[in-house]
Amino acid sequence: MSGIVGVLSKKDCKDDLFYATDYHTHLGTSYGGISISDGKKIDKKIHNMGRAQFKSRFSEDIDYINMQGNAGIGVISDRDTQPLIMRLKFGEYAICGAGYINNQNRLAKALIVEGVVFSEMPNGRVNQIELVAKLINRGNTIVDGIEYMHTQIDGSMSLLLLGKEGIYAARDKYGRTPLALAKKNGAYIVASETCAYKNLGFKTIRFLGPGEIIQLHENKVTQVKKPGTIMQLCTFLFVYTGFPASEYEGKNVEAFREDSGRIIARKDTVKVDFVAGVADSGTAYAHGYSHESGIPVKIPLLKYTPGWARSYVPPSQKVRDLIALMKQITADVLIREQRMVITEDSIVRGTQLKNYLLVKLWNAGAKEVHVRPACPALMFPCKFLFSTRRFDELFARRILKQMHGKHIQNVEPYLDHGSAQYKKMIRVMEKDLNVTSLKYQQLEDMSAATELGVDNLCTYCWTGKEVKSS
Questions:
Q1: Dihedral angle over CA of 331, 332, 337, 339, nearest 10
Q2: Does the pTM of the predicted model rise above 0.85?
Q3: How distant, in Å, are the alpha carbons of 30, 286, 316, 387, 397 from that of 349?
Q4: Where does the Glutamine amidotransferase type-2 domain start and stop, copy by copy (predicted)?
Q5: What is the DSSP letter of 209?
Q6: Binding site for [4Fe-4S] cluster: what residues are annotated?
Q7: Topology of the domain comprising 251-451
Q8: Binding site residues, as ranges?
Q9: Which CATH superfamily is domain 3-231 in?
Q10: CA 316 to chain centre
Q11: Angle at the Cα of 179 from the Cα atoms of 264 and 256, rounded to 5 degrees
Q12: Cβ contact 176:458 at 8 Å
């Protein structure tokens, strides 16, 4: 996915914007961009982050160093170059966003037929932010245009628009990606992640509602569109994607993961010597499991973080595999002849867990390895964020294809953890992964740990069910 930040200040906003944007680096590894306005002109700078970190790219850039202004937006992008500066009929705006548009090709083709020109076409595909700008430009006002855009796209999109008059912040129609509003003396900030501004002195005021639009201008905040009534926050933000220090709708990510670990332990019966979390996102689940069960936590796989990014984020499987191989190093003496529970945030593709992490544990002499993912088996590619796109990318779907000889359409029996089909699938998974046992967290337990209610969560990747307004 991506992370976006907007800052409006009585003084130069650049430092707050720089650090707040950098605190979203866990959400993407492709591009980092910043745009700043002094009320007269809008400047921007974009860097490729494939080979260097956001901070180093921008701190050495003389063009960025010379930028100044009291309003700005920043983005860490997982796919498109952004922000883009677009000349709309309402004026000039820098635009950035977080989300994914499934029908982007169809929308772009329809606009091209009408004579609309696209300048940003990397690898022959449209830049989603340019597409969004073209759709917004069809409205009678900026707000009307954003609403129109939300009615046209199949997917999700939260946006920031920086103009000479200030910043518009618009949350996705169903709130799938978060936007939090915060304040400190003389400045406002709106951001995807609350962790982005805690060290900068901002205090959260509230979270924007689904489809809500606000304007930051003249050192005040004005609501220009009220929120809708249907919330579908991405649950995977809690499970894996979000940073532990962040909150979504008031629920802290680390607290969710510890609570989930407690629930997993309460429903587990295995006899083991210790519990361990795989990677940073699995650690809190292990602590929760340990607190509930009394089983000690150990760290048999140690992550070498200085030179390696998150292995889930890069779009290339080759890069993901390389990171998985190189980043985790075994402490063999802790593993040899030991029975262990491994808490894992999820099993998405399954390749890293199977081909690298579990192999390392067995090679170090593990006696038993019991894997406990903190969410159900992922059955459907995500429609709303730039993530998995095909059935073949999902471990559970590959297992079902192995069982049936093809991808099946009706997976309902495999979503019921009490069914014979589900139990058979788990046995095949255990054999494929080469683990002593595998037990997924159930949907209702995962949802309960968020304390938000399942009706307010997007669970499409597990159930294939999508909630829409009538």
A1: 30
A2: yes
A3: 20, 21, 12, 11, 9
A4: 2-219
A5: P
A6: 234, 382, 458, 461
A7: Rossmann fold (3.40.50)
A8: 234, 382, 458, 461
A9: Aminohydrolase, N-terminal nucleophile (Ntn) domain (3.60.20.10)
A10: 17
A11: 15
A12: yes
204's CB contacts (< 8 A; 6+ apart) are 180, 181, 182, 194, 247
Listed in sequence order, the DSSP H helices in 23-154 are: 54-59, 62-65, 104-113, 128-136, 142-152
The C-alpha atoms of residue 79 and residue 157 are separated, in whole angstroms, by: 14
Name the nearest CA neighbour of 444 among 148, 300, 237, 235: 235
Residue ranges of domains in the chain: 3-231, 251-451
Q: For 383-428, what is each residue's pLDDT tens digit?
A: 999 877 789 999 999 999 999 999 999 999 999 999 999 999 999 9
Question: E strands, 336-456, where?
Answer: 339-344, 368-373, 437-438
Structure tokens at 257: 């993961």
User: In sequence order, which residues have a C-beta less than 8 Å from that of residue 371 and are 6 or more positions away?
Assistant: 341, 342, 344, 347, 353, 358, 433, 435, 437, 438, 439
* Residue pLDDT, tens place only, 223-255: 999 999 999 999 999 999 999 999 999 999 999
Residue 343, token pair as written in the block: 């808490």
- Rg of the chain over CA atoms, in angstroms? 23
